[in-house]
Amino acid sequence: MLNGLRAQRRTGRSARMLLEVLGDMWVIRRNPYIQDDLLANRRRLGSLIQALNQCLDGIETRAGGNEAALRLAQQARSAVTEFGAWFSHTRALRRRVRRRLARVTRADNIDFGGLARVSNATDATDWRVEMPLVVVTPDTEEEVRSVVAACIELGLGIIPRGDGTGYTASAVPLCEDTTVINTERLEGLGTVEMRRLEGVEQPVATIRAEAGAVTRRVAERAEQNGHVFAVDPTSQDASTIGGNVAMNAGGKKAVLWGTTLDNLVSWRMVEPHGAWLEVTRLDHNLGKIHEPIAFKINIFGKKSGSYHLIVQPKER
Fold this sequence. Notes:
Layout: H1 2-8, H2 13-30, H3 32-40, H4 42-62, H5 67-101, E1 110-111, H6 114-119, E2 134-136, H7 141-154, E3 157-161, E4 178-182, E5 193-195, E6 204-209, H8 215-224, E7 227-228, H9 241-247, H10 254-257, E8 264-270, E9 276-282, E10 294-300, E11 307-310, E12 312-313
Parallel strand pairs: 2-4, 3-4
Antiparallel strand pairs: 1-2, 5-6, 6-11, 7-12, 8-9, 8-11, 9-10
Helix pairs in contact: 2-4, 2-5, 4-5, 5-7
């Protein structure tokens, strides 16, 4: 419609005014720092909406009764109205989300700020679709279940995120009403323990790690005890165990001992209804998977979750 009007009329001033209106809205919708400023300053937001409508008034005045120009200006005015309503909706939604999440985690673990949203909007792909609504950084594993349950109750999408080193875009929000649950503080790491696994005759060296434990720390703990952790992706200085499991990370040692799933004894995660789900591998072959495998699944109430990983003897 705009291109048709340009061909019909001698001046492009109205077109420039229209593109200025649409451009201002686009820039603000993509810039969380400006959004924060306008959400906090209603007078400034009101001045902006007024300026946008004044531009559209000018377009209508210059339309000279042209129906297409008037229709285009009216569509743009509807977009401005929707743009202004977004701020009221977002302000109310943030209040509701903050009140609900503050019941299950510390208030300063709930971040709607531009820096947090930008930092958690993409991963190593640098693919950006939408900014998350909020970033939640739980202090403990026990909080994760309650945070997930609260987000489900609020109708928000959920993305678990470690250090964002993945190349699969699995940490990229695809819709606006999304909570990113950042697991970087869940960095608990146990000692190397000899455990008897179901279906395995000899005791096996294992280590318990929380989702936010950095891969390099697990490898160093195994090394200190005379073992090797088989998972060594190039991002191991920054990647976390939760991400290794989610992406089935490998590395050069995977040729000998397999990928993350080959070296995983059990894990606990929060399932979509907010309960803990524990998955344990049966009859572990202590190496690469070459045949169908079996798992045992248990659902718990409020137990915390983590991973039990196999560490390999150095002499293998």
